[in-house]
Amino acid sequence: MHWYLKKSNDFAITPLPQTVQKLLRNVNKISADLFQLSKKVLNDPKVIELTDALKHIFETRQLPVEVFMFGSRVTGLALTKSDIDIYLNFGDECTEPQSIKRRSKQIQDCLRTDHENWDIELTLDRSRTPIIKVKHRSTGLQCDISFTKGLSVENSKLIRSFNTAYPPCQKLTLFLKKWLSLAGLSGPDGMTNYALVWLVIFYLQIKFKIPSIADLIKSHNQSKIISGWETGVSDTIFINVPQQPIHELLLGFFEYYGGFDYMRLVVCPLLGETCQKKAFAEVSILPDSMALYVAQLQGDKTEYFRIDSPMCVQDPYDLSHNLTKAVSILTLKRFKHYCNESSSVLHSIIAKS
């Protein structure tokens, strides 16, 4: 292979896979099937059995801990094989390396008292969100247990609120999760499903002017600070926009992100509009709704929003977190290319119908 091509990586941007083209030719049926399956998974009795079993272990050991489920099983975006995400709330912030290690051992010791039901498969104490990966034998379900901060629980409530208030948001996300997977755009240097959710919601904010997270916080007017970030949004939100066919929403999504200026702009669901990357380098020009981000830069544990990444999507609550900081330049090129290719496929299908 020529050295220049190898260095530029342009050779790796392949045509839209046939499996993705087939997916796009069956948008209505596949999105309807995924939507029905997600509703079925949402009421899975095995999940209740798993959470009850966890609660029982901690009650038996007399540990004062609350068990919360979050992630796709709460938001309505889970499918049959989706993992269970659990947050254990011990009533304190567990952030120091030594306290994380102690808390992790404490949880593992509890699980080992019922070793016939629980397999501890992996512990990740040094990741951004430390987790314990376990398998519940009687249900066969995989479970990721986190215990450091409860922001993920609030994030899941927020996503569920959008999906409940505007079901096409849920349908669009479920379809795009499938699209992302078949296009090979997930993985270590790819996009997470969580980042994809916020790309969808942000696109709907731009297209229909559905409320920004800052507006939802302002209208609810009940501050709720978790891990230093404002999460005061009502569990019930109202979205009054016209229902559009799924293929039209999908086409709009592909056209928007196929033409997005990733070099200069940040996707900001908090604002409901883009923000210039340079504003994060000169924080004095950031809007007032970013005040908590600016304040945490003055604290002991400063965490800057990563604007040096090819793709920038800001978490709606943890304003220092770039959800797509792991996305490589090659993956971003492929994402844009596949968005434009998918747009062309949909246009040709619509023209024939």
From TrEMBL:
Its cofactor is Mn(2+); Mg(2+). The keyword Transport does not apply. Residues 48-162 form the Poly(A) RNA polymerase mitochondrial-like central palm domain. Signal peptide: none annotated. One of its GO terms (molecular function) is metal ion binding. Residues 248-321 form the PAP-associated domain. The keyword Isomerase does not apply. Pfam families: MTPAP-like_central (PF22600), PAP_assoc (PF03828). Gene3D superfamilies: 1.10.1410.10, Beta Polymerase, domain 2. Keywords: Magnesium, Metal-binding, Nucleotidyltransferase, Transferase. One of its GO terms (biological process) is RNA 3'-end processing. This is U6 snRNA-specific terminal uridylyltransferase 1. It comes from Trachymyrmex septentrionalis.
